[in-house]
Amino acid sequence: MQNKFHGVGVAIVTPFKEDKTVDYDAFERVIEHLIEGGVNYIVVQGTTGEAATLTKEEKLSVLEFAMEVVKKRVPVVFGYGGNDTADMLAGMGDFPLDKVDAILVASPHYNKPSQEGIYQHYKQLAEKSPAPIILYNVPGRTGSNMTAETTLRLANDFKNIVAIKEASGDLHQMGQLIKHKPEGFNVLSGDDNLILQQLSIGADGLISVIANAFPKHFSEFIKAGRAGDLVKAQEYHYQFIDVIPLLFADGNPGGIKAILEMLNIAKNELRLPLVPVSQAVYDKLNKVINDEGLVS
Asked: Distance between CA 45 and CA 148 in Å, rounded?
């Protein structure tokens, strides 16, 4: 199986109108902005897409709309997560998983399963999924870390588990994955702020939040890093080093939606319990992206 998932993937936002319904016009603008910016693939309904507050019907509508707009110009990955294995298995038929390029599946949240529990969860999904699976390790949200040993066990045991979005922030763990991964398995960063360091040890790419706003910059950033041009990659790293912490200062996707509003791409609207960033953070973001010449 040829692995399409390298370079820059974008965890795409779900834009809302003032009444909190999905803003499909803005969603199309974001998609076109990303494709024109040269991203390699998009991830629909991940954390940044506020999947936790969309109904099943909305998730299906958003996914189908994205696929219609993309028209196979780039691969589409669908965020399909949960902490009830049986429910996830039963719900696979509710979405056109046979038509997406992969599903991004976060390690179960809240339950805090053992490593064997995590393995068995993904085993059950891999045996039934009609789409390739990208693992997602994000301990800051799930409450438990998926170790390199568990990830590699899954990667070796199931050919349709094709990559991992590694967002533990642990460079040693990422290094273990890169060193010992099987052929065809990609190790992707889930941390915008660490991508320079991760590229330097061989990461295959990034699933990014900030690339929603600056896809061209991040496409060039990752190309340079993967080609071994760390001097050029370092220039991009320092261009964004003051932006990224502010992006997450009041939670995700508040920061990126604030920037998309500044760029006149989408409204700064979120669904509760998420709220827009504070005015202080908004003003700092506005200043720093202007100071860095990121607003044309």
From this structure: 25
Mean pLDDT by 10 residues, the chain (296 residues): 85 98 98 98 96 97 98 97 95 96 96 97 98 97 96 98 97 98 97 96 97 97 95 96 96 97 97 98 97 86
| Residues tagged active-site | 136, 165
Q: Secondary structure of the chain: what % helix, strand, coil (to 5)?
A: 50, 15, 40
- CA-nearest of 169, 192, 6, 193 to 101 is 6
Q: Which amino acid is at 103?
A: I
CB-facing half-sphere around the CA of 117: CA atoms within 13 A: 13
Q: Are 123 and 157 in contact (CB under 8 A)?
A: yes
52, amino acid identity: A
Task: Report the SS3 class of residue 273.
Answer: coil
- Domain ranges for the chain: 7-241
Cβ-based neighbour number of residue 96 at 10 Å: 14
Fold category of 7-241 in CATH: TIM Barrel (3.20.20)
pTM above 0.90, yes or no: yes
